[in-house]
Amino acid sequence: MTRPLDRDRDPGGVEAPNLSAVLGRLSGVLYAEETLHSVLRLVTALAAEVLPRSFGAGVTLLRGRVRSTAATHPLVEEADALQYELDEGPCLSAARDQRTYRIESMWNEERWPLWTGRVAQLGLGSSVSSPLVVRGDGLGAVKVYARPEAAFTDHDERILELFAEKASVTLTNAISHEDARRLSEELREALRSRDVIGQAKGILRERHRVDEETAFGMLAEEAQRTNVKLRTVAQRLLDSAAPSSG
User: Fold this and answer.
1) Coil, strand, or helix at residue 52?
2) Is-above-0.90 flag for pTM?
3) How many structural domains compose the chain?
């Protein structure tokens, strides 16, 4: 698949926004008020701003088997989804290799032939993908797409890399805050479950004159028989034992 680089469609003369101002907006994130998803959306929107020739931008976080993504345009989502489907593309390579990849022409690119062939059909001509890395640990990648071919320069690569460095710290903090919030909620739920199960055991001990271990065994047996959670069985018992309101 060959086609000459379409340089004439490069808008040219477009000045990048003040990088310090963009990075300042990342520094102003209040993690107590934001979710990881909202921070991802912010990072993605700013990535599209920092390279004004871009058509759209996307961010991918890879944490084990968990993938978190955000995109500024449905076409970006489609292009990224193709990378995950085919398990190839510059975003995945940037995340895995922890280096920046630039595509001058989707039509002429040979490193990811399956992906670029299909993305070219979407009307996207070029891209830059930079890794998100903190203290040597890879988080994922940020990428920008353009409709013209050869839309991005060496300078654009460096700008995106500087942005990615700051975005990596912002996203790491957001992940830590999200994990802490989730752990706190899981702990609260565990304490609520323990309280409900304890009350249910008390009802069974009084009702059947059995010890605590036997009461717990009765709850566990009912949970296994009905294929529901132990807490659900305990809550049902509490609800059935509650005095009627009339």
Assistant:
1) coil
2) no
3) 2
